[in-house]
Amino acid sequence: MTHTSPSVRRYQPDWPVDVLGILTIAVYGSWYYGFGVLIDDIGAGLGAGSAPLGLAFGLAQVLLGALSLATGRLLDRFGPQLLLGVIGPIGAILVGFSGRSAEVWQFVVLFGVGGGVSAAAGFYGMTQAMLVRMDPAASTQRIIRLTIWGAFASPIA
After folding, report:
1. What pTM did the predictor assign?
2. Which of 19, 62, 80, 107 pairs with 46 at a CA distance of 20 to 30 A?
3. Largest CA distance in the chain
4. What are the boundaries of each domain within the chain?
């Protein structure tokens, strides 16, 4: 007769969820919501109309979709370290440099590429997948907590 002991669930702290929530606020707030708030000032500073600025935002959106396939594959193969430690910061640096653009084309390239790269590494598609990998049994509660954090992105921006 074999006797099996009940499985014991290891406690997983909530701070990784909170860190990913703050990342969500930073990524969404910095370029997604922040762009809408600052578009008039950006246009005035560059002497540009809404068309090239819309192109920058559209480029970021298209790259978000395309690069999400690649970042999802990288997450599956190598884990979150590469995304959070290298790819996301590269995108953030490019978005930051877009604020120093002297020409419209520079802004379009830097903001478009930087926004797409940072979003592909830090939007919900990545952060929710990371949470599920950390603790599949608590994934629903953790995704809810992450989404509540993300709700602060719009008011903060």
Report:
1. 0.84
2. 62
3. 81
4. 15-39+49-156
